[in-house]
Structure formats: C-alpha cells, structure tokens
Amino acid sequence: MSPNTGTARKKLTRVQAEGLGFAVLGIVLFSASLPLTKFALDGYDPLFTAFARPLIASLVAIPLMLSTKSLRLPRELIRPLIFTTLGAVFGWPILIALALQKSTSAHVAVIAAVMPLVTAIIALIKDKKRVSNQFWVASVLGTILLIVFALTRGGAKGANGTADILTILAVFASSYCYVEGAGLTKHMPGWKVISWIVIFGSPISLVGAIIVFAHTHTHYAFHPHALFGLLGIGFSSMYFGFFAWYRGLKDLGVTHGSQVQQLQAIMTLGWSAWLLHEHVSLGTVLSALGIVLCVLWAITTANSV
What we know:
The protein is an all-alpha fold. It has helices spanning 14-31, 33-41, 46-67, 78-102, 105-112, 115-127, 133-155, 161-184, 190-216, 224-252, 254-257, 264-276, 282-300. The chain has one domain (10-300). The longest helix has 29 residues, at 224-252. The model is unreliable at 1-7 (pLDDT under 50).
C-alpha cells in the first residue's frame, strides 16, 4: 500500500529491535512473579510480601548506587519519581494482594489482561502521539485473546465487586508507573530509575512490613521454597526485571513496547508448568501462538505512517 493510505510500514530499526529484546527479557522476569508469589504465600502474609519486595530490592539498589556515585538526583525528577514509586512499590503490589484475598488469581487475570492496552492509551495521552489503525486492531485483538485465555482457565469464577475494583485500580497504577518510569529513562538509565524507585519506597515499606509482621508473624511457617519465592519477587520482579523493561520501553517506545506485556500470561504458564508442575493444554498453546502473533503485529506497526 502507498503511504497515502496511512498504513505504510518500515522495518524496526536496530535500536527498536534491541528494545524489543530487552522488553521481552523484562517480561520473562516479571512472568515468574505469580509462581514465586505462590511459593512466598506458603509462609508469609500477602501484605508482608508486598512491603518486603522493595526492601529486598534495596539490598542491591543502595550498594549499586553508592558504588557508582549515583545518589545525586535533579530536583525536577523528584516529583515523577514519587508518582512512579507510588504505582510500582505500593499501588500494584498492595492492591493486587488485597484483590487476591477476595478473588481467584484466574479471575484477577481476566481484568489485568487489559493492562497493555491501558498502558498504550496512557502513553499516547501523555506524549500526544498518534498510531496506526493496525496497531489498535492488533492490540485489541490480543487483549481479547488474553481475556478468553484467562476465562478458559477458570477466570469466570471468583467474581467479587470489591476485588474487581481493586484490580482495576492496580492496573491503572501499574500502567501509569510504566509510562512515567519510561519517561524518566530520558534523563537516566533504567537501572537508576528502578534503583531510585525502591530507595524512595523503602522507608514506608519498612514501616509497613514491621506493622504487618507484628500482627501476622505467629501464623508464619518457615519453608525454604517460601523464602526462595519471597527473595525471587524482590530481586527479579521488583528490581532486575525493570532493568530490562525500562530499557525496552525507551528504545521501542512505550506505546508499542507495552504490547509485549501480552506475553506475560503465557510465560507465566511456562514458569508454572516448570516450578508448580501445572498442566499446559493444547488449547493453551494455540492461544499462546495467537497472542504472540498479535504482539508481533502490534510491534511491527511502530514505524507506520
């Protein structure tokens, strides 16, 4: 088709292709969050795991920032960092933990499936950019496949009005922190962004963790795999995953890069099959292929005019 039709497309640039690779790596690390959280919940309270995540991440972030002499922050970046921290450290982890106390993970996954689309919309509003119609078709189709995928895995069960509202708020919190955090990578590398986020969130997280622990520790039972899960979500999901994710969003663009999130549910199944020995059906594999094709379709429209 000619450029006049509004659907002309160019190949991804080298930087965009590298961004895609980093975004996929980030989602691989994020996708392990659910099975690792299941491990952690065998020994710890849900809210305690939410507050502990940034504290565990800070064990790496603070020494890294000190060793690289990176503890100088321009005043104009403090405000966006605070908002990003609210979404990444408190919004998503706490709201999802509360939602999962009232509903099933499968039902929550149905609502959370709209996150890539919400992230793209927030990014477009913030940056005042336009994308091709093909991008919207691919993004919406991928979202629909994700919802159907979640429904077939029991997502229709466990409906709860309060849990649904909490999940919707969690989706907006996470999507916003992705967009705001990616914007900060214009001023500093992604690893510094997430390091500042966990440093900003650690004082409140420490107070929260102490309070929750004081009220719930009598119910804790030590299991090696629970500790492994807690450390995993702290180091992987809360910290190292964002190294790659923010780099990917910067290089590929938030709007298109966010669509890689659609792969997270599929990758989570892979981790669950390996770590939790969950069964993966042929229907699941076919759904996965459909979602992958939609993601690739959405991303290849990055240079459409």
